[in-house]
UniProtKB/TrEMBL annotation:
<keyword id="KW-0472">Membrane</keyword>
<keyword id="KW-0813">Transport</keyword>
<dbReference type="InterPro" id="IPR036259">
    <property type="entry name" value="MFS_trans_sf"/>
</dbReference>
<keyword id="KW-1133">Transmembrane helix</keyword>
<dbReference type="Pfam" id="PF07690">
    <property type="entry name" value="MFS_1"/>
</dbReference>
<keyword id="KW-0812">Transmembrane</keyword>
<feature type="transmembrane region" description="Helical">
    <location>
        <begin position="165"/>
        <end position="188"/>
    </location>
</feature>
<protein>
    <submittedName>
        <fullName>MFS transporter</fullName>
    </submittedName>
</protein>
<feature type="transmembrane region" description="Helical">
    <location>
        <begin position="78"/>
        <end position="96"/>
    </location>
</feature>
<feature type="transmembrane region" description="Helical">
    <location>
        <begin position="46"/>
        <end position="66"/>
    </location>
</feature>
<dbReference type="InterPro" id="IPR020846">
    <property type="entry name" value="MFS_dom"/>
</dbReference>
<feature type="transmembrane region" description="Helical">
    <location>
        <begin position="367"/>
        <end position="386"/>
    </location>
</feature>
<feature type="transmembrane region" description="Helical">
    <location>
        <begin position="134"/>
        <end position="153"/>
    </location>
</feature>
<feature type="transmembrane region" description="Helical">
    <location>
        <begin position="342"/>
        <end position="361"/>
    </location>
</feature>
<feature type="transmembrane region" description="Helical">
    <location>
        <begin position="407"/>
        <end position="428"/>
    </location>
</feature>
<feature type="domain" description="Major facilitator superfamily (MFS) profile">
    <location>
        <begin position="11"/>
        <end position="457"/>
    </location>
</feature>
<dbReference type="InterPro" id="IPR011701">
    <property type="entry name" value="MFS"/>
</dbReference>
Length: 468
């Protein structure tokens, strides 16, 4: 006998674990990078590709995931994402060399790109508005716990077992997600959209292959150029050609997207000032989050000589306060609006990063921990009001499009941020410039956020009028 209530709970369990798994694999590898580098003979720059291969494919293909789900259905699409993530995890655990590990991480990123938006879409479809907030809140809490535990877990596995166990442990977690999802399958199938036909005119959503090719080419060229500039030289011909090709490809992508009836990304939503301001915030949010999760553990191990486990503890301590401040941030945004809390949070975050830069220059572990506590506590003060503002700035029938644009740009912040900081570390051989530059970039966004967020702008329906 069908049990919709029980199936909804299993679906919530599956989607919460999916979110946790996806964010865990962003953060769990950073602490283990020195051990991976030593075992596989990576250069420092090449070792960072273990993280950025995941981020790059995630960024490029997450916009495609929604289109594919509309074409084949959420259920089959979700199962394909699980299969890709499992295959990438198995290949990473068995990787015989650095090339295989980086390729496996890229495959994981493709799987994550399908799974991440599917989790939100399934819960939104299953739970009615009066229960949706609680469901999404639980999912976000689980994701936060996984993200917080990533550095400590990665350090413990690298120190006491092997870095390969980071990927082996994904497999039983994926099996649990699959089991829970299969129990919830009847409800997911009943509430999801019907797969669209792929035929002629008006048959349903189509995949924007030219847009995808330009986005993939542009981001790959920019990321490669930025990451290798520290070792090849900023003025070297290969770096200049890569940066120019990347910029040209992304410019062509933007030109194409505003002219297509069914674009990969509805970039014309960026004409709405509040939405654009929120997107800027999330670009920098992911930029500085990746900077902290990757380069603080590296500094603690390579300069202060801490073990992988000890290097993971300050990151865990930094993220835990956000589980409390996330509730306060939501209430502050409801009472004060989004602009003031987001601006204050961004300013405090930038100052915290400058303090981390100062602390690494002084080799002061207590100051690093204090700065990280401030950094972590204000993360929700940035994210919660900004997401509230940008999603409220577009009409309900454009919410899915808005989510796709924001998520892609957010992940782009992490991809390009890691690439730029890797090149700075390679060029200077010093960690303080990495954190000081990131802090200054965060503070440089304050004026744009204050001036754009919650300001009246063109309606999304007007912005897309030319396509109708």
């Amino acid at each position: 006998m069908s049990d919709p209530v029980g199936q909804a709970r299993w679906a919530l369990a599956a989607m919460s674990l999916v979110l946790g798994l996806v964010v865990l694999d962003e953060t769990v590898v950073g602490v283990a990078l020195p051990r991976i580098q030593a075992e596989l003979g990576f250069t420092p720059t090449a070792a960072h590709w273990v993280v950025n291969a995941y981020l790059l494919t995630f960024t490029c293909f997450v916009a495609l995931a929604g289109r594919v789900a509309d074409l084949v259905g959420r259920g089959p699409s979700f199962l394909a994402g699980l299969a890709l993530f499992a295959g990438g995890s198995l290949a990473a655990a068995l990787a015989a060399d650095g090339t295989m590990l980086i390729a496996a991480r890229a495959l994981q990123g493709c799987g994550a790109a399908i799974l991440f938006p599917a989790g939100f879409a399934v819960l939104t479809a299953i739970f009615p508005p009066d229960r949706r907030g609680a469901a999404l809140g639980l999912q976000t809490t689980v994701g936060g716990l996984f993200m917080a535990s990533g550095p400590l877990l990665g350090g413990a596995l690298a120190e006491h077992l092997s870095w390969r166990w980071i990927f082996w442990l994904n497999l039983p977690l994926l099996a649990a997600i699959l089991a829970a999802f299969l129990v919830a399958w009847p409800l997911v199938a009943a509430t999801g959209p019907k797969p669209a036909g792929g035929g002629g005119q008006g048959a349903g959503p189509r995949i924007d292959w030219p847009g995808l090719a330009l986005l993939l080419a542009g981001l790959t060229a920019l990321t490669l150029g930025l990451m290798e500039s520290g070792s090849w030289g900023w003025g070297s011909l290969p770096v200049l050609l890569l940066l120019a090709a990347g910029a040209a490809s992304l410019a062509a992508f933007l030109w194409l997207e505003v002219r297509r009836r069914q674009p990969l990304l509805h970039v014309d939503l960026l004409r709405i000032p509040t939405f654009a301001g929120g997107v800027i915030v999330f670009f920098m949010f992911q930029f500085d989050k990746i900077t902290v999760f990757i380069f603080v553990p590296l500094y603690l191990q390579q300069v202060l000589g801490l073990s992988p486990v000890d290097a993971g503890l300050p990151i865990l301590a930094a993220v835990l306060p956000s589980l409390v401040t996330s509730l306060l941030a939501g209430r502050a945004a409801d009472r004060l609006g989004s602009r003031l809390p987001a601006t204050i949070g961004l300013a405090a975050n930038g100052v915290a990063l400058l303090l981390v830069g100062l602390a690494t220059a002084l080799d002061s572990l207590p100051l690093i921990v204090a700065a990280l506590l401030l950094w972590g506590a204000v993360l929700p003060v940035i994210a919660v009001p900004s997401r509230r503002a940008l999603m409220s700035a577009v009409p309900p029938d454009h919410q899915g499009q808005a989510s796709g644009v924001n998520l892609t740009v957010q992940m782009m912040g992490g991809t390009l941020g890691l690439a730029l900081c890797t090149s700075i570390l390679a060029a200077t051989g010093s960690f303080p410039p990495v954190f000081l530059l990131t802090g200054l970039l965060v503070l440089a966004c304050l004026g744009a956020v204050w001036g754009m967020m919650e300001r009246p702008g063109r309606r999304a329906s007007d912005a897309t009028e030319r396509r109708q």
